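User: Structure tokens for both sequences below?

Assistant:
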Amino acid sequence: MKKLIGFKKTKIAVFISGTGTNLKNLIKFSKLKSYPFSVDLIISNTNKAEGLKYSKQYKIKKKIINYDKKIKSDNKILYILKQRRIKLICLAGFMKILSKNFIKKFKGKIINIHPSLLPKYKGLNTHFRAIKSGEKFAGCTVHYVTSKLDSGKIILQKKIKISKKDTAFSLAKKVLKKEHIIYPASIKKILN
């Protein structure tokens, strides 16, 4: 049997604010030998994030950071990331905007999943806006994070057809399934 000599998985941190479905999915993929990363840290801006339960379930360290004082919060997170030797940050439904200074310190090492085919529909309510505009397609995008909202270089995108029956809710469910495919694939792509 061939052993992977010196093969160490890259430590990643996942930032969440909500249910954590992408987090759970990334944890699942991190357990596979063919995926070069391990989820080493979960950071949330709220203790009400449902996804925090995966910290206990999978024995992953979690930190809840109060975002009232942005600079203080950023410095605290940067310190924790350095301590835990985190090499990549994955934003997964993280509802806070990182400061320019934070992004600069982790330049090229922060990625985000966004529920639209960027550059279209940056920001919130993407599915509702896509349907309202009469789009034929929706989808999701994994991109690098820059100080301009949802504007960084695109890593991967997945497109799906919007049906006449789709509502913002049904479209969100369809897009989420695609997110679960392209997020781990994007991490693999940039780490390999």
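Moving on to the next sequence.
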Amino acid sequence: MRLIAALFVLAGLAFPQEADIRAAEQKWAKAILGKDTAVLNQVLGDQLIYAHSTGIVDTKASYIAKINSGKQLYEGVEHESMTVKLYGSTAVVHAKMHMRGVNQNGKFDDRMLMLHVWVKNGNDWQLVAHQTAKP
């Protein structure tokens, strides 16, 4: 009986962190949709690797500059499904995404797979790696 109670306690501790990651994902999506560079500066890690499905890889500075200039413009960012795996102060997110907007190649309306790596930095989760791929 103690084992079952302990498992419920441990499970309860994991769920808030997963909820925090899901909230961080939504915060990231809202920030790129709204071109909110102040929020992006908080959410994105300083050593970010941001690999797009086009093969282009951005740093935090180059990605925020693209968002700010409108060279990377999002008109829709929707998580169609999301799996979160926690590893201590690191979280890995795999999601099916629907993303619409305009980039250096013109308009895009893509369904893709996305992998995010989040790291706990103090009280906040920061995105340190992003990779999208078209299935």
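User: Anything stand out in the second?

Assistant: Residues 3-14 have pLDDT under 50 and may be disordered.
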